[in-house]
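User: Fold this; tokens only.

Assistant: Input:
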Amino acid sequence: MRLAIIPARGGSKRIPRKNIKVFGNKPMIAWSIEAALKSDCFDRVIVSTDDQEIADTAQKYGAEVPFMRPAELADDYAGTIPVIRHAIEQLQTKEQTKISYACCIYATAPFVSTHDIRSGWESIAKSAADYAFTVTSYPFPIQRAIKLTEQGRVHMFNPEHFMTRSQDLEEAWHDAGQFYWGTASAWLQEKPLFAEGSIPIKLPRHRVQDIDTPEDWQRAEWLFKAMQAEQNL
């Protein structure tokens, strides 16, 4: 079985009720649910939540909510891997369901595409990798990053690269925060995501946006509207 798991706790603080706040013309989580369903990659699409309103919204848009997530896995410190492990264990133990692969799709990923989800599946299915997840490149060389000191000054993280040309520095990539395909075994063993056992699925920077603050939300809405307008041309 290939399982999509969308984690969506109810306790978002910086953007209250973020997972079901209307984005575009539907609750934020609906975009992830619909992308998972339309991808035709999954036998089941479930939502892991501790919140009944989120559960009701998820079911309205076609996802299953076969269990409620325990409070200890729904606080500010709960990590993604333990939450996915819990979901897999719940289904395998209580329903005697054999799961081969599970894909974590974040609830706040309105730019996730069915094409990318399929690319992730194809990449992990034909390899011996533990995970396949989306990445995008930094827009500026990280080797030339600076930090602000307590004295109100600046200091380079890597001062040895002050005179190095940008084009001579190695390109750096970061997690795009959309989805993570993984073998059930990797999730259950809580293997690290950012390691040699993972395959990157490259995305262009314009389709990647963290949504953690009200400013992030506004920027994401602008970008989303622009992308929709272009697709309608």
